[in-house]
Amino acid sequence: xxxxxxxxxxxxxxxxxxxxxxxxxxxxxxxxxxxxxxxxxxxxxxxxxxxxxxxxxxxxxxxxxxxxxxxxxxxxxxxxxxxxxxxxxxxxxxxxxxxxxxxxxxxxxxxxxxxxxxxxxx
Length: 122
Prior knowledge:
Blueprint: H1 2-21, H2 31-44, H3 48-80, H4 89-94, H5 99-109
Helix pairs in contact: 2-3, 3-5
């Protein structure tokens, strides 16, 4: 009785601290999301494990394509905005942006619908 209570307290504490360890990122796809949907779909035709495996693979491909697009846009943004060679390493490191931030700035400067560019987000 005492041992199971300890395990329950540990499990609750672990689950409560889990969101604090890694920040949530809004990315499409992923093995868990698509795998769960694939498992439900596979369950309907009595192939839940195959559906989960197929969904997981699809989710991984979708996330890879999304991140690849971010890296491509970040490279284009870096091409248009080269780093200042007169800055020290520390200043360049402090002013560095993530690929996601660079892709957002690229999208703001180059709208797809041909409208005038908006002011870049700060």
